[in-house]
From TrEMBL:
Limits of the N-acetyltransferase domain: 14-219
Natural source organism: Salinomyces thailandicus
Name recorded for this polypeptide: N-acetyltransferase domain-containing protein
Record PANTHER family: GNAT FAMILY ACETYLTRANSFERASE, N-ACETYLTRANSFERASE DOMAIN-CONTAINING PROTEIN
Superkingdom to which the source organism belongs: Eukaryota
Leader sequence segment: none
Example of a GO MF term: acyltransferase activity, transferring groups other than amino-acyl groups
Listed Pfam families: Acetyltransf_1
Length: 228
């Protein structure tokens, strides 16, 4: 399945477009800004290990990895850009369609070689925790949409960017009568509630110092109107 342009109904200040490999670097910059305060990021990329990989090498690895994900495969990725300056990326989202986990098992490739500056144990342990929880909830059923990523540049938050980015996947799910599943951040919960998600469980991670709300949205017949 290829992402189509889901711009309809969104804030005219922003355009929602499919994200492609050349967008990798801008998506990483946007993610860095959106998740700057994330304790999970700080644990996976600990400051104490930063010296183990040259910054340019790490950046190159991240861009190449992100570009690979944007090539297609199981991820359906979108970017939000300014209508008046489309080179300015202000948000991104990535979805996995129903059945994708049945093919792939996990969101990340198994046995991936990580740079020395990353804490591989925390990274793999967290992903395995998400995999276990997803398998526990769905028990082999792969009939759900999965929101794999969502981030908005802090400079453009609370202007409807995330709502516009969410819309495409929610519309697919509603049209197919399927639920949507995601692992939220504490910052994302209010947004997801607004769009009909409910918290079904809260995972404790990072030695019980960080909470990950697991949220599900049942299919609906109508999405809330967007403002702005
Ligand atoms: C969560 C996040 C994606 C929201 O993006 P956004 O573009 O600011 O969200 P929107 O403007 O589309 O918000 C739509 C509605 O969601 C709710 N909402 C969004 N952010 C909210 C917040 N911080 N507090 C309370 N409600 C919020 C509101 O109802 C909002 O409508 P309103 O502004 O008319 O009140 C953004 O804050 C972000 O990137 N945070 C850091 C990264 C992150 O946590 N990503 C989620 C990963 S699961």
């Amino acid at each position: 399945m290829q992402p189509t342009n889901p711009t309809r109904d969104s804030n005219p200040k922003f355009l929602i477009l499919p994200a492609l490999p050349p967008d990798a670097s801008a998506i990483i910059a946007c993610g860095n800004a959106a998740f700057a305060a994330s304790p999970l990021r700080a644990a996976i990329w600990p400051a104490a290990k930063a010296h183990l990989t040259p910054a340019s090498e790490f950046q190159h690895w991240r861009i190449a990895r992100k570009a690979g994900k944007l090539e297609g495969g199981n991820l359906l990725s979108f970017k939000a850009v300014l209508s008046e300056a489309p080179e300015r990326l202000v948000g991104y989202a990535a979805w996995m369609a129903p059945g994708a986990f049945a093919e792939q098992g996990s969101i990340e490739p198994e046995g991936e070689q990580l740079p020395a500056c990353m804490d591989g144990e925390v990274h793999r342990g967290f992903l395995a925790q998400l995999d276990r929880e997803r398998e526990r909830v769905w028990e082999g059923d792969s009939g759900f949409w999965y929101l794999a990523a969502l981030g908005v540049d802090p400079e453009f938050q609370r202007q409807g960017v995330a709502a516009a980015l969410l819309r495409w996947g929610l519309e697919q799910a509603d049209a197919q009568g399927l639920p949507v599943y995601l692992e939220a951040t504490p910052e994302g919960v209010a947004l997801y509630h607004r769009f009909g998600f409910e918290t079904v469980r809260v995972l404790e991670t990072l030695e019980n110092s960080f909470e990950v709300p697991i949220m599900i949205r049942q299919p609906q017949s109508k999405l809330p109107a967007l403002e702005g």
